[in-house]
Write a structure and sequence with these properties.
The chain has 7 helices and 26 strands. With 453 residues, the protein is of the alpha+beta class. The chain folds into 2 domains: 23-241, Sandwich (Jelly Rolls), CATH 2.60.120; 252-449, Exo-inulinase, domain 1 (Jelly Rolls, Sandwich).
Length: 453
């Protein structure tokens, strides 16, 4: 091909490209995509033809749970009629007409991976605003980035209604109005990961319960496509349900004795602090440090404060793992000194060959040593019980008492390491897991309050 022919070809391609892009998806390509997703375990939530599998929105999960069957049925009938007037199937797209309420799945979902295409339809304004409710809870945000008045320049894909945990996306990955975007949303336990157009915008962030922030996110609820008064379209909506762990439950005896669960393997609602590195994973609280320091420090703390208590939990060490159990600790400052730290440590690792006696596992750090030799091999689960009553602290590891201490003397005369430990004088505070940048796991955490509150 000579130069002039090449130039003519390039000009022709430049002319045709916008036309080609404007074409609707090739039906054969769509069918192949559906077959591929089906092999991966995905099923369609929207068939591209009608509203089968969808219903109108009735209230919120808490309000619905309080309705009797008759009241709910009547409200659902009214909501369905409104849905059919507000949402239309047009050329294989699920379109919101600009008035009415959310559309929701008939089925409820727990853990899942979801794929959905969406586009904001340009109506000449800057009010493009929508979202996807996960387990009936708002929301993975969708909006027109040009709407600076509401802060939309941060981009879509964030957990907009979060207050305690991250709400904004990591970066802007939106396409222009009238162009299709694709979400890949993964919800496991109480955490959400979102990819927008193959770009990670929300990284394993806890979704808060908007309807009642004193509660964790619902374990199972419907998925909703939000209607916020501006036209939007959805297509290619697929979902793959993921296996869910069985929540840890107290034994009948523990219930009778007044224990309560602090971590059941399904959510982190009872904890504050570094929820970036402390995550829920297969029913465990896994410590998986990420590069860079968390803005919340290395520690995770109980939301509540405790004075006297019995704490029971299990932990699994990795080689050289170093963590600690904070008791009666404040949230700020060095918990090993401002509170008290009971060592959680693979103290048989070569790197710890020169430890002081009050630094081994189970010891009150810097103060009173615990017995050695009762940890299970690295990788096996250890069971630990900690009893705190006034100045007395007892640690039972795998059935053996390794610490039976009274800190009265240390309160008066100082700690063994000769350093200041003002936390020895504290009578109450938070329980914490005090990280040192090492991976390990915890599970089945429960507590009995002995303070008579």
């Amino acid at each position: 091909m000579n130069l002039s022919n090449k130039l003519r070809s390039l000009v022709l391609l430049a002319f045709l490209l916008p036309v080609l892009v404007s074409f609707k998806e090739d039906p054969i390509r769509v069918e192949n995509k559906a077959e591929m997703l089906q092999k991966e375990g995905f099923v369609p939530l929207f068939n591209g033809k009608d509203l089968k599998g969808w219903k109108g929105l009735v209230g919120d999960p808490i309000k619905r749970s309080k309705m009797d069957a008759k009241t709910l049925a009547e409200a659902q009938k009214k909501a369905d009629a409104e849905m059919r007037d507000s949402w239309k199937v047009v050329n294989g797209e699920l379109q919101f007409t600009g008035h009415g309420n959310n559309i929701t799945t008939v089925k409820k979902y727990g853990d899942f991976e979801m794929l959905v295409d969406w586009k904001i339809i340009n109506n000449g304004t800057l009010d493009g605003d929508a979202g996807i409710y996960l387990r009936g809870t708002p929301q993975v945000q969708i909006w027109d980035n040009a709407n600076l008045k509401v802060g939309a320049q941060v981009g879509s894909g964030g957990l907009y209604n979060n207050k305690e945990h991250e709400s904004k996306p990591l970066t802007v990955a939106d396409k222009k109005l009238d162009e299709w975007n694709t979400f890949r949303i993964i919800m496991k336990a109480d955490r959400v990961t979102v990819y927008l157009n193959d770009v990670l915008v929300t990284d394993n962030v806890i979704l808060e319960n908007y309807w009642d922030r004193s509660m964790p996110i619902f374990s199972e609820e419907q998925i909703e496509l939000q209607a916020h008064g501006s036209p939007i379209a959805y297509r290619n909506i697929y979902i793959k349900e993921l296996p869910r762990v069985k929540p840890f439950q107290l034994s009948a005896q523990e219930k009778k004795e007044g224990y309560k669960v602090l971590f059941d393997g399904t959510n982190m609602h009872s904890w504050i602090g570094n929820t970036r590195d402390y995550i829920t994973e297969n029913g465990n609280m896994a410590v998986i440090p990420k590069p860079g320091k968390s803005t919340l420090g290395n520690n995770l703390f109980s939301r509540e404060e405790f004075s006297d208590f019995v704490l029971r939990f299990e932990f699994q060490l990795t080689p050289g793992a170093n963590n600690g159990l904070g008791i009666r600790s404040p949230i700020t400052g060095d918990a090993a000194y401002e509170g008290m730290e009971l060592q959680i440590l693979d103290n048989e690792a070569p790197v710890y060959k020169d430890l002081k006696v009050y630094q081994y596992h189970g010891s009150i750090y810097g103060t009173i040593p615990a017995k050695r030799g009762y940890l299970k091999p690295v990788g096996e689960w250890n069971y630990q019980e900690v009893i705190v009553q006034g100045p007395k602290i007892k640690v039972i590891l795998n059935g053996t008492v390794i610490l039976d201490a009274d800190i009265t003397d240390a309160r008066k005369n100082g700690a063994a390491d000769g350093l200041k430990h003002p936390g020895l004088l504290r009578d109450s505070g938070h329980i914490g897991f005090l990280g040192h940048g090492n991976p390990l796991k915890f599970r089945n955490i429960r507590i009995k309050d002995l303070s008579g509150k």
